[in-house]
Amino acid sequence: MLDSPQTPLVSVRDLKMHFPIHAGLLRRRVGEVKAVDGVSFDVMEGETLGLVGESGCGKSTCGRAVLRLYDITSGEITIDGAEIGDTSQSKLRKMRPTMQMVFQDPQASLNPRMTVEAIIKEPLDEHTKLSESEKREKVGELMDAVGLNRQFAKRYPQAFSGGQRQRIGIARALALNPKFIVCDEPIAALDVSIQAQVVNLLEDLQEQLGLTYLFISHDLSMVRHIATRVAVMYLGKIVELAPREELYAEPLHPYTRALLSAVPEPDPSLATSNERIVLQGDVPSPANPPEGCNFCTRCPSVMDICKTVEPEYFEVAPGRFTACHLYQNTNDTAD
Amino acid sequence: MPDGALPVLDVRDLKTVFKTRSGEVHAVNDVSFSLRPGELLGVVGESGSGKSVTMMSLLGLLPSPPADVRNGSVMFDDKDLLNVDAETLRKVRGGKIGFVFQDPMTSLNPVFTVGVQIMEPLRKHMGMSKKQAAARSQELLELVGIPDAKRRLGDYPHQFSGGMRQRVMIAIALACDPQVLIADEPTTALDVTIQAQILELMKELRTKLGMAVIWITHDLGVIAGIADRVMVMYGGQVVEHAPVANLFNDPQHPYTRALLKTIPTIHGERAARLTVIEGQPPIMTAPPASCPFRDRCDVAFDRCENENPQRYDLGAGHDAACFYNARTGAPRDA
Ligand SMILES: Nc1ncnc2c1ncn2[C@@H]1O[C@H](COP(=O)(O)OP(=O)(O)OP(=O)(O)O)[C@@H](O)[C@H]1O
Ligand SMILES: Nc1ncnc2c1ncn2[C@@H]1O[C@H](COP(=O)(O)OP(=O)(O)O)[C@@H](O)[C@H]1O
Ligand code: SF4
Ligand code: SF4
Ligand SMILES: [Mg+2]
Ligand SMILES: [Mg+2]
After folding, report:
1. What is the pLDDT of residues A284-326, one digit of tens each?
2. Torsion angles phi and psi, residue A148, rounded to 5
């Protein structure tokens, strides 16, 4: 909280993750889904980078690709000094402890046939040489850390509420003392009153253990609460990245503006005074993105150039990045 | 909205119990509310608080067993919907009362075209010919803002995006010019920009068609933007009910007050730490003999253990079911 963190723990450059589309009897490759299509960003040591955007824009794919849960199409990924973009999966296994993931659906991500203890212990079995009793003690400490009663160790996940299940997932992710955790919608499946508990827990753990988070969410109010900086994705690309306060106070990209104005505020007086930008139409398919700027089919400020030339992603002001022709001119004249 | 107007829908003391193998679940306990013509009543509450069961009960949509609608009355069109024959109820449902549920049971059928599914209630409830129904279907799709409506009538649900499918659902609910529309979390699964489109559409339709709406959501932001009045549910009961501005500016029930504090916002002050409502929702295995919120309430006292509070009238259309008077900071008189 004191100094703003400066050293990147994670650096991503021009990351692409394209999934092939197969069709016909011979399952021939007929195209590709450009789920992540050239994104670049850093995550500073100890910070929380929020990654927001609408369903299908590529947030989860991006988070999973950064952890190399996929063999990526192209790009560079550096985590804690190691370049892992083209590292083989067998070598990656040894590096797994540094980086972990917490998933959206606490129900689906926990094996129903394993006890809570076995679930949290599994990564210790795989990656450490601790004795059984040491492992059990470690599991107990992890349960304490996430606020789960140790007496629940022998129960199965089904016996827990959604918020408690998410705590189990977090305890498991913490087992190997990771530095970097990708949290993919960790609260989306939880009730409003439980969301706050899990978010507070993530914040406490970050402070105690010096964790760095990539926090994926479509909840812009919650991201404003938890993130240090925020990246906004649209159709496989980052369209804007900025420190939290600046992004919410003065969004630059037309998509960010529309997105923020669409968030319903729990205040009836704001509801009537705020001008809402209602976007027309739906997000185009990532298998067939439009020519030029990806947002040109829905953008209220669209210009001719937007339909042919893709805007470059660049730093408009210190720490503020965006990809939009509205700001490109200032860049040209500045050089 | 006209304050003195007679309600179009009046629900009194509704009580629904599920009989399960592990015992009874008292899902809805003495819920009462009314809906005036043209108004939008927002219903909020955490998951399991009884919002959906309330609406399904009053429409007679719950299979029995396990559901048992034990008590109450639902007055609509001079009839008690809990005491009419199945045929009359079927006519009201999807006719004068339209509904959109998130429930898959009521969502679109993948094997029929969208056109066929919109035409069905028109032919069934309004006795339209095929030609009339087709024309009206196109009108309805246009009304909910689907471009190229005529051609799209021949498309199957999977050819529409999530937001468009939800618009189609709304079009079907609106098919027979309902006096009342019941929408259960109709935008929860949608993205905010698509949700904004639907909310905009709702406002427009209400002024155009003058229908009354019940809108269930867990999103207080949505409620603030579209509701006239709000009903807060907790543990199968109505715990607070007020005009929208009063509910947000002057919440009285401890649950509502806590709920409003737990949610972060886009514009307001950014809290260093989120407020948490500690504890778990009640397990509703018996009729409540005490206040359902007592285990999580920070101002609970003896009386809350021994009695379940009734809804106290606080004036100006505002009521709260709580023994504690938040305005004076003291217990209410008996
Ligand atoms: N294995 C895959 N094969 C083909 N397409 C995929 C695959 N995984 C994801 N996609 C596609 O890539 C795009 C991005 O998906 P992704 O899951 O990253 O979205 P998201 O932003 O996380 O969305 P949500 O908010 O709904 O979780 C989508 O169009 C999706 O259908
Ligand atoms: N078919 C069922 N059998 C048993 N209990 C049920 C059934 N359907 C709902 N319930 C219970 O009724 C209560 C209210 O549920 P519901 O109305 O769906 O809540 P919500 O406010 O989230 O819409 C919950 O405790 C739920 O578990
Ligand atoms: S580049 Fe053009 S279309 Fe794209 S966001 Fe900017 S103004 Fe809109
Ligand atoms: S009745 Fe008692 S326990 Fe219930 S909300 Fe009021 S003060 Fe709290
Ligand atoms: Mg996702
Ligand atoms: Mg429900």
Report:
1. 888 889 999 999 999 999 999 999 999 999 999 999 999 999 9
2. -110, 135
Closest approach atom of ligand 3 to CA A300: 8
Domains and CATH numbers, chain B: 9-96+176-264+275-331 (3.40.50.300), 106-175 (no CATH)
pLDDT per residue as tens digits for the range A101-122: 888 776 778 899 999 999 999 9
- Number of domain units in chain A: 1
A282: in domain: no
The strand pairing partners of A136, in sequence order, are: none
CATH number for the domain including A175? Answer: 3.40.50.300
Q: Which residues of A touch B161 (CB under 8 A)?
A: 282-283
Question: Does the beta carbon of A217 sit less than 6 angstroms from any atom of ligand 1?
Answer: no
Residues A228, A48 contacting (CB under 8 angstroms): yes
How does pLDDT run across B152-207, given as a tens digit for each residue?
999 998 888 777 888 898 899 988 889 999 999 887 767 788 788 888 888 888 88
Give me the pLDDT at residue B314, please.
96
A273 touches chain B (CB under 8 A): no
Tokens, residue B186: 């109709």
Q: A56 CB less than 6 Å from ligand 1?
A: yes
Residue B221 contacts A where some CB pair is shorter than 8 Å: yes
3-state secondary structure of B15: strand
Task: Give residue A61's domain range.
Answer: 8-253
Q: What count of CB pairs under 8 Å joins A to B? A: 120
Instruction: Note whether B271 contacts A: Cβ–Cβ < 8 A.
Output: yes
Model confidence pLDDT, tens digit, residues A48-90: 999 999 888 999 999 999 999 999 999 999 999 999 999 999 8
Which pLDDT score is estimated for A272? 61
The reply to whether ligand 4 has any atom less than 6 angstroms from the CB of B239 is no
Distances (CA, A) of B9 to B81, B218, B314: 10, 23, 23
**DSSP structure string for B181-227:** EEEESTTTTS-HHHHHHHHHHHHHHHHHH--EEEEE-S-HHHHHHH-
For all residues of chain A together, what is the average pLDDT? 90
Residues of A in contact with B245 (CB under 8 A): 268-269
- Coil, helix or strand at residue A139: helix
